[in-house]
Amino acid sequence: MERSENRISEEAMHREWGEIQAAQTNPERFRPLYDRYYEAVFRLIYRRTGDEHLCADLCAQVFLKALQKLPAYSFQGVPFSAWLFRIAINEVGQYFRQSQRNQRVVSLEENHLQLLLDDTDEADPEEYQYRRKALLAALDDLKPDDLQLIEMRFFEQRPFKEIAELLDLTENNAKVKVHRLLERLRKKMNPGG
Amino acid sequence: MGHHYNFRIPPEEPSRETIDQHRDFDAVLAQFQAAPPTLPANQRLFRRRLFWIATSAAAAAALAGWFFWQTNTLTLPSPEQAQLMAQAHFAEQPCLDVPVPALDKPLQRHTIDAQTGGTLIAANGSRLVFPYQAFQDNRGNAIQGEVDIWYREMHDAVDFFLTGVPMTYDSAGTRYQLESIGMIEIRGTQNGQSIQLAPGKKIQVELLSTLDAPSNSLLPAYNVYWLDTVSRNWSFQGVDQLSWYTEAPTDDASSGNRSLSQGVSDQLTSLDAEEANILTRLQANFPPPIEPKAPIQANAGLPSLDIDPAWNSLEMDAETRTIFQEIAGKLVVITPRSNEFDERMFAVEWDGLRLRRGADGDIELSLIAGTTQRRLFIQPVLLGKAYEEARKKFETAYTRYQQSLADYSREFAQRKEVLLNDLKTRRAQLQQAYTQAVAQEGTGSGKTTRQVRSSFSIDAFGIWNCDRPLPPLPQQVQAARFVDQYGIEYPNQVAFLVDKKQNTIYRLYTSKGAVVPLDQTGEQIIWLITPEQKLAITQESSWFENRKPGKPVVVQVTVKDQAVHSEADVRQLLGLGGS
């Protein structure tokens, strides 16, 4: 669970920093970075919106903001993708805060739910459906920021280090927050115990 | 269920072809080029502004509302309102507000042996004597080998302008303009990492400056201040031991009666410095009651931090460990005092921490990684019943505090009156003597320039200033606007004012109704920096002389076409000589 397709090597990260510096002086040179990360940003937004056209609009907005903020970007030893994903997450958050019509989408596989059930309690196969319903109800009650942590850790299977980079936390802080959220979910699912 | 989120199990994934249909970099680029952002010159300034904007949001909103009203009613704000706007603006600027980064005076590198100490001799002959074993790293370990000392001096208004050093001092609720006889900035590094002076170690400084004074006049009194960049104020450190460094000129033309008024004037200025010292000492010996801090509830809109119990394994001293055990596992907020706070610090793996309890209730949290150290001020957040109880306690304590403060203010005013009574009498006598001396002397300068030596010791790196508080300039006028020869206005930016009789610089905020301090008997120059990085300077005083009493003035500046590439260019354009 500690691997992520978004991780790149130190060497690649430094090479990429050269591309970013070039783009800082000439926005046209942002093109290779756009091409490299467009699909990843699109998928990240799609998992949270479930709507192709809304996703395309938000995606364009993310890259426009990235271009606007690029002159202020400095290399902090974390992948450029983390910076882009953070802009994307903020855009999605902002969209749903302002939108009255659409519901935030949470995309997950059945086995991810199973994983979370394992993490929250010792799952009893016979009671699976009952416990699954209780878990979804408990997840539905979470605040957007809390749900996002669970989503990143269990549904997108991101390592803590990457979650920390995306949410501007320390790795330890991310671990503690997730641990506390699991405790809270466990209590909600077992109010008596 | 399903009221808040739409759970999609299993998720739908768009195909690569679908995604590619929306891929259009040229459209994004065109949108960007249609409206590129205006970004601040450097990231540090940007982050700092973010921080100050957060802490002064309420004040800014109130000011914005007020400004909107003013603009729409076409009335001029009162001087007090204009001062408030200026204060709000300057509070958002960095402590060292360098106006043209390319022209900032560089620090010169010198090398000192940390084991044996040594002497640094600056280009102008100033000397700094370093004791043996004077340095430590940011974790308190003694430093061996050679260290780099970075050093520069600031002596006159152009230096203060280029370096952006603040020239005002707040003491006991009163704001003074400072006149400096010389200033130094000193920093230390080893292998690129910053270092500190070890506790108890002091550097002896002999700073050489020049002073325009009659040859037979007494030396004026100056104080030594250290710039506290956290509180953004000068911190009084002691009295400058000032002495003549060069002999008086043998030509006696500058001596005699002509120096009498200057001598009395210096004594009057010394009296102001004495008054500031008395107030500083009074406040130090008779401190005000400490205001209790309101407990902070969760979601107070401040950045927060979980104190992770796992940090127990980090390096910490005994005092830190005691405080850590009290707050481990709790949520804390980072208070607005934390001017070193930067959200990127959450992405750093720290390997040590230090906690100290402050008198004001804040806890000082220093995070350490290698030789890097960052200091934050934190407060535990309270929840539910614990918050309610703490709130009740606070309200009782606050009522007691208000009573104590009223008693204190009365007592302070009485003590201040007793202490300043003698000064009041002396001031009246000196003012009378000054009037008589001026009448006797007629006109003429009678001054000569001599070198003086300021001797003082410093126990920390940073900016040290030998200066004295000045009485305010006698007149204040309000400016309707600042406008150049082409009719272009320069609203809401910083302008600079120098009175050639004083060795200081005034910073003004060119809002509508800006207060411009003036002395009709002096020679003054006002300038600002245009967006093209050129200087726009007041050429002559007609804008001031033609003013109608009680009416705002229009400050007329002339944009100089000459490009400004160096300090010499600035000096030449402003007509202010070398330091």
Write up this protein:
The complex is a heterodimer of chains A (193) and B (579). With 193 residues, chain A is mainly alpha-helical. Chain A folds into two domains: 10-98, RNA polymerase sigma factor, region 2, helix turn helix motif (Rna Polymerase Sigma Factor, Chain: A), CATH 1.10.1740.10; 110-189, Up-down Bundle (Butyryl-CoA Dehydrogenase, subunit A, domain 3). Chain A is 70% helix and 2% strand. Chain A has nine helices and one strand; from the N terminus they run H-H-H-H-E-H-H-H-H-H. The longest helix of chain A is centred in the first third of the chain and has 19 residues, at 31-49. The radius of gyration of chain A is 18 Å and the shape is elongated. The model of chain A is unreliable at 1-6 (pLDDT under 50). Chain B is an alpha+beta fold and 579 residues long. Chain B has three domains: 106-286 and 428-470, no CATH class; 299-382, no CATH class; 475-574, Immunoglobulin-like. Chain B is 30% helix and 30% strand. In chain B, helix 7 runs antiparallel to helix 9 (384-441). Residues 38-74 and 250-258 of chain B have low confidence and may be disordered. The interface between A and B is large, with 55 and 46 residues. Strand 1 (104-107) of chain A pairs parallel with strand 1 of chain B.
